[in-house]
Amino acid sequence: MTTSLPSLRSLDRRDFLRGGLAAAALAATGGLAGCATSGTGSTAPSASATGATSADNPFGLAANSSTEAVIFKGGYGIDYATFAGQQMQAKNAGSTVKVSPATNIAQTLQPRFVAGNPPDVIDNSGAGLIGINTIRDQLADLTDVINANNYEGTKIADTLYPGVTAPGTFDGKFVQLNYVLTVYALWYSASLFESEGWTVPKTYDEMYELGGKAKAKGKYLLGWGKEAATYYQTMAIASAIKQGGDEVRLALENLKPDCWSMPAVQAVFTGLKKIIDAGYVKPGGAGTQFTAAQAQWSNDQDFVLYPSGGWIENEMKTQTKDGFKMTGAPEPTVDSSSSLPWEALHSTAGEGYIVPAQAKNLAGGKEFLRAMLSKEAATNFAKTTFSSSIVKGLIPEDGFGSTALQSQVKMLDAAGSNVFTWNFVDLYGTNTDQLVLWNAFLQGDSDVATLTKGLQSITDKIAKDDSIKKVPVS
């Protein structure tokens, strides 16, 4: 079965504004990953004890039961999940919820999947996530979660943006709930740019020119940390899709031969290499922990641009210079002849929550998601992380005072129908191998040809491996 990107032209631009970020972006995400072929493995039923089901207890959570949640500790932290766990405990007297952080989900939890004792609910996110293709036959269907009422008494499905289930639905089975709407951008300090009279670059040539201006002020243009080197891959792919159009996205998604050699991709790599060779990238990133590198941007202002998702403000909230005015701008195109305008935006639903079918407390895992989807928990998430969940109608016009969140709304408004995403990196779990290539490239130890060859080798290995289930995209 193939999947298709829905026509974004038909989506109302007002859907992107106030009261949450982008229903339309969620719908677009679903077009990329909504119809994977199902595996042949069977799913063993959970042996967990259950109680009587009711409107207040839709999954039959047993009295005095314990639920284990493992949450990726990244840009959003885990406090929002702890808040939901506390809500769940208050709603179900006698129950307990243990929320544990993890920074490498695959390394931490794959052994537990193999042993048959996974946690009850997992935030499968971050650079070290478990490739969803490798475990989706072991996951519980979450349709009953969104069909249940939230803690305020409203059917959850009616509170969510359209398309929310599509990204986590594989061959008709909804197994992953993507909780956060992420906007990817090139982030900068609006106050710094205003004081220097700089404008945000729209092309790689303009980025290069800004690099010279930054150098004259004793600053670098770009910087990175070792665990986040592939943030530049994300930027490069977005730029290439904007430059070359949908054929670039489709070639990468479908693991085509020579997809990394497409002219638009090569033009982006070449533009970035020119910036690296000019000495406009702060050296040492391959040996620097990524949040330390990000602090060199947000607190020390050693470099002036940084590609990341909308989680960046929350991730760096204790390490951001006063008056920084963190602001996002669309990722650059190669030139003004791009297939999509500069305003086109990479946006997608992320933070994929899963409930293993073999969880000891399957009902507890689903009840935890029900708590997270309550109005109170979703509002808390938006207010404390300056990001939007998939629950609509919760973000005020002032973005809770966040310039970063305000800029996300503005970017989505300006993008209109030109919103896109891709899924192959997470789907096939290639990020770890790609990190090695990007660290070498950014520190100047390889060239465009070497980077291209390495990325194509990773792609070809997956494409030729018949044991890996593929997700055709059209």
TrEMBL record:
An example of a Gene Ontology cellular component annotation for this protein is: cell envelope
Is Signal among the key words of this record?
yes
Q: Gene3D superfamilies, from UniProt?
A: Periplasmic binding protein-like II
InterPro entries documented for this protein: Bact_solute-bd_prot1 (IPR050490), Chitin_NgcE (IPR022386), SBP (IPR006059), TAT_signal (IPR006311)
UniProt keyword terms in alphabetical order? Signal, Transport
Q: Name where it's found.
A: Cell envelope
Pfam families noted in UniProt: SBP_bac_1
Q: Which family does it belong to?
A: Belongs to the bacterial solute-binding protein 1 family.
Name of the protein in its database record? N-acetylglucosamine transport system substrate-binding protein
The scientific name of the source species is Microlunatus flavus
